[in-house]
Amino acid sequence: MTLKDCKKEEKADREFQKRFKFEGNINVLTRMMVDPAVTERKGGGKNLPLRRGEILDVIQFTNQEQILCRNSRRRYGYVPRAVMLHL
């Protein structure tokens, strides 16, 4: 990883912490997969776009309906629990 990529990731992490009012270190709790049978959705606001079969890093279990996740492009957002499957 180059210095430029590292700084880009640090900036994305700072923006995430500010936008979602997340304090502390960003730790991945587990990885989960988006249900392959679900219809794909565009992200909007604080929601993460959903792609069938995508593997997401779970950052925080926020409530009974949503999970705070990060995708492979280092984008953060909420994902409905109903569409997530354990690996």
UniProtKB/TrEMBL annotation:
Record's keyword annotation contains Phosphoprotein: yes
Domain Helically-extended SH3, first and last residues per copy: 16-85
GO cellular component, one term: plasma membrane
Keyword terms of this UniProt record: Phosphoprotein
Coiled coil: none
Residues spanning the membrane: none
GO biological process: integrin-mediated signaling pathway; protein localization to plasma membrane; T cell receptor signaling pathway
Superkingdom assignment: Eukaryota
Keyword Phosphoprotein in record: yes
Protein name as annotated: PRAM protein
